[in-house]
Amino acid sequence: MYxxxxxxxxxxxxxxxxxxxxxxxxxxxxxLMTRANGHFPVFYSVAQHSIACGREAIARDYSDRVVFACLxxxxxxxxxxxxxxxxxSVLEGYCKIExxxxxxxxxxxxxxxxxxxxxxxxxxxxxxxxxYEFKHFMGEELCEExxxxxxxxxxxxxxxxxxxxxxxALLETYWKKTGK
Length: 180
What we know:
Layout: E1 3-4, E2 10-11, H1 23-32, H2 46-59, H3 64-72, H4 77-80, H5 85-88, H6 92-110, H7 116-138, H8 160-178
Antiparallel strand pairs: 1-2
């Protein structure tokens, strides 16, 4: 079984092939996917979140590789969609599929999986952006200890085309910078 991607690739999410993973498919799909399963009061896309994560990693002066990994950290959702954290944590089969696909994405674009140190940096950036998204959109603080933020996040409602173009440009820039 396959899905047909934006670039007209017949992609098999359960058996991902690196040569079928495309930046334009990731950027297009994520620019149309909502964060928080659509529960924010306005449209805010997964691509906007990924841009915020990349910009936060840049502000922290992380390596180009970590910046690129932050931009890609939700890329599997372009092929699988997303499931909220509370549900995802109990779906063992889904988690394995998502991990396998995310690893294929990292291998294609980074050449290898993030190291433990890199993974911790990516996770910290992701959690920081998540915290500030929920604080901004929902007025909810997700944890007692407020994470330090190094960049300004853009919460404007933007067209998916504008977000897709910015996300694609960032992805392509950091793909080149990582030399893969």
